Amino acid sequence: MNKLYYRILNKIKINIFIIQTYFEIRYFVLKNKNRVFLLMTPWYENLGDQAIALGEYKILKKLYPNKKIIEVPDKVYSSYLNKIFGLGIKKQDILFVQGGGNFGSLYLELENLRRNIVKTYNKNLIVIMPVSIFFHNNVQGRSELKKSQDIYNTHSNLIIISRDEKSFSLANEYFFKAENILLPDAATSLKESICDNNICRQGIQFFLRDDKEKIISNKLITDIEQYIIKNNINYSITDTVIEPTVIKKNKRKIMVFERLRLAQKAQLVITDRYHGLIFSIVTNTPVIVFKSFDSKISSGIKWFLDLNNVHYIENIDLKRVYFLIDMYCKKNQILFINKQNYCEYIVESLNRILRGKINDEK
Fold this sequence. Notes:
The chain has helices at 2-31, 47-63, 74-77, 80-85, 108-120, 139-152, 165-174, 218-230, 249-264, 274-282, 296-300, 318-329, 342-361, and strands at residues 35-41, 68-73, 95-97, 100-104, 126-134, 158-162, 179-182, 204-207, 235-238, 268-271, 287-290, 310-313. It is an alpha/beta fold and 362 residues long. The protein folds into two domains: 2-189 and 342-361, 3-Layer(aba) Sandwich (Rossmann fold); 191-329, Rossmann fold. The strands form two sheets. Strands 1, 2, 3, 4, 5, 6 and 7 form a seven-stranded parallel sheet that branches. A five-stranded parallel sheet has the order 9-8-10-11-12, sandwiched between helices. Helix 2 packs across helix 13 (342-361), helix 8 runs parallel beside helix 12 and helix 9 packs across helix 10. The radius of gyration is 21 Å and the shape is globular.
């Protein structure tokens, strides 16, 4: 009975948030003619996707310092209010769409939203921010790929940014009418937002999946835990996804930075999450990263292979894991400084491409 009560209460709360946010958006649209839109931002509990939204906002502020960035969450975009009354978007508005690992058949609810945006705003310049692309190699996956192809390849002004080489290759093969480019995940742009002076690091922080994309075994984690305990090393296990809740824009930074601080305080991160890897890179923390269900890690890791504190393990090798644990947790603290400014790289690349697009339209 209590569970049902809380589910109903949560549903009411979300609907109130949707109504409030929709009218805030309409107010901003009326008030600001000089604007860009960021669509499909998350309210859900995946802090990796929340970090992406934070990074995208930072990138857009650098790209358009004098424009109002109007954010439209996924739940507001899919609401009846939007379906009936719209958002007031004009054809001269530039639309940016949330990036992440949900492009394809794995998370169809979000792929359907993305399709709807591209189909509805077929006269607008649309930029899909850095994504990983995955369609299942089965009847349903091929059917969903065909649906996405039919929509994305009929848009005359679509930019798809891939965040890994495998996705970039798929985009070029299947979405050939779009302009396809390759850039790092937007959450990497948070690197300059983290202060790591005089941080006392201790122990190991795990960020581990517990969902349909998990492929590493519980036995592997148990073996690693036993080795850590035997060597008297402190450790903590969590995920980059938290308990179901609504994370609105005003809570986003607090909750993302709480997870970033967990990585920042550790001598070593062990993860099978793409954003466990990104959180480590952003905080200059050594990381052991295992392969994922799709290619987002095996291909996306290539941005970071020149960093000597990033260790990708494709085939399970416990001896190597133990060696790295000893190296980072049994010796004096090793300091790593990654001088790569991902935010500036993304901004400069986008600036060049968007400038070319706008000049072509003139």
